[in-house]
Design a protein that fits this description.
Helix content is about 50%, strand content about 10%. It has about 425 residues and is an alpha+beta fold. The protein has three domains: about 1-125, no CATH class; about 175-355, no CATH class; about 355-414, no CATH class. Helix 7 packs antiparallel against helix 8. The two termini are about 25 Å apart.
Length: about 425
């Protein structure tokens, strides 16, 4: 099913005596059926509505339905003014539906080779048949693209470009690299903490040398001692994992608000669910086994006679007893330097972006945006009249020194 690629700008929605700025997305008939989700109320677009000249229809998100229409079910079938044109509301999407575009409502795409973008700004969504492979789908799409390339309109210079990409990979393409960098940083900090904890466990095992030597002298099993030390490290890791879950739950709301301000994607579904808890539990168990095994194994290599005859408690005996601790110290220092260097570079980059000259004086500037995707402004003369009238009224407001119109804001990447 075709859908308009990219995120649309906000447009005006008028219902009754209210005017709202909403973000629309244009999709083809069957789009929601391909995604495997249906409207909570009403129906999806029909094929007749998705053709040029068809009836104007719209589907609302649950958020818009609740905030603007107070969850009134009678809104289905009602007429609203969208971009100055009447549209009939045919359906309400469920609250659980999310897409890569944080849309408030959807309208038929009405794909045409001569319309907006000359037919080149549409993405096609397909669902593979049961048992089909990506190789088969790619071959079939290649055959269709070859036929389209030989069609008369395409033979005049139009190039057919295609690529079969899993939907999840396409949606995550923009955030995959930042998330991988974030995961790498978190993993590095976790590794430093685990090495530090392994060093502490090794030192603690050294202080228990006489206890372990006594157990070995009376016939205790090395396997039992290793098992006990591993259980102790598992308890410590479980406590750390539980503390991390509690801190994460408390800090999640703040992180979500920061993410909404930094990236223009919806983060409302981010939360601590069963999968997050299982991953936390698995990481805790894995780290306790990996970084608790070496101290436990080293502790059982104690010199029984030397430890029992020593006046004080010592670390594990033997000439090779100190190399694990030296190795852990070297690894911890090396990783700590990497973390400090990376944090310093991030802080320096952040400060540079915050203090970077904008090239203009932002003091006293106020910006407002308006959508001209409206049937009332289809002619250039009406747009020019709107600009002249708006600028004259803004200039007459007390305290306003001057006013101007621009298609974009300086230093604005959105």
């Amino acid at each position: 099913m075709p859908r308009q690629s990219g995120m649309s700008a906000q447009v005006s929605l008028v219902t009754g005596d209210r005017a709202l700025a909403v973000r629309p997305e244009r999709v083809g008939a069957g789009y929601f059926r391909v995604l495997g989700v249906g409207p909570a109320l009403g129906r999806e677009f029909s094929s007749d509505e998705d053709r040029p000249g068809g009836d104007r229809a719209a589907m609302m998100s649950d958020r818009l339905w609740r905030t603007a229409f107070r969850a009134d079910p009678s809104v289905v079938g009602r007429t609203i003014l969208l971009k100055g044109e009447p549209h009939t509301v045919v359906g309400i999407m469920p609250s659980s539906f999310r897409s890569d575009v944080d849309a408030d409502l959807w309208t038929p795409v009405r794909a045409t080779p001569t319309g907006e973008g000359e037919g080149e700004n549409f993405a096609i969504l397909v669902r593979l048949r049961e048992g089909a492979t990506w190789a088969q789908a790619t071959a079939e799409i290649a055959a269709v693209a070859g036929t389209a390339a030989r069609h008369p309109p395409a033979s005049s210079g139009l190039t057919v470009r295609y690529a079969t990409v899993p939907l999840q990979a396409a949606l995550a393409s923009q955030v995959r690299r930042p998330l991988l960098l974030l995961w790498s940083a978190v993993g590095l900090v976790l590794l430093v903490a685990c090495i530090n904890l392994a060093g502490l466990l090794l030192a603690r095992a050294g202080s228990r040398a006489r206890e372990i030597a006594t157990r070995l002298a009376i016939g205790g099993s090395r396997r039992a001692i290793v098992r006990q030390l591993l259980v102790e490290s598992l308890v410590i890791a479980a406590a750390g994992g539980l503390a991390g879950v509690v801190v994460g739950a408390l800090a999640l709301d703040g992180l979500k608000s920061m993410a909404d301000g930094l990236v223009g994607t919806p983060w409302g579904d981010v939360g601590l669910d069963a999968r997050a808890l299982l991953v936390t539990m698995a990481i805790s168990v894995l780290t306790s086994l990996v970084f608790g095994l070496a101290p436990a194994w080293q502790a059982t290599r104690v010199d029984v006679r030397g430890a029992l005859s020593a006046a004080g408690t010592r670390a594990v005996a033997g000439g090779a007893g100190g190399w694990p601790r030296r190795l852990l110290v070297v690894g911890e220092v090396a990783l700590g330097v990497m973390v400090l260097v990376g944090a310093g570079l991030l802080i320096r980059t952040f400060v540079h972006l915050q203090t970077r000259p904008t090239g203009f004086d932002p003091r006293g500037l106020v910006a407002a945006s308006a959508s001209l995707e409206d049937a009332r402004y289809a002619e250039h003369a009406r747009v020019a009249r709107l600009f002249e009238t708006s600028l004259a009224r803004l200039a007459s407001v007390p305290g306003v020194e001057s006013a101007a119109v621009s298609l974009g804001l300086p230093a604005n990447e959105s």
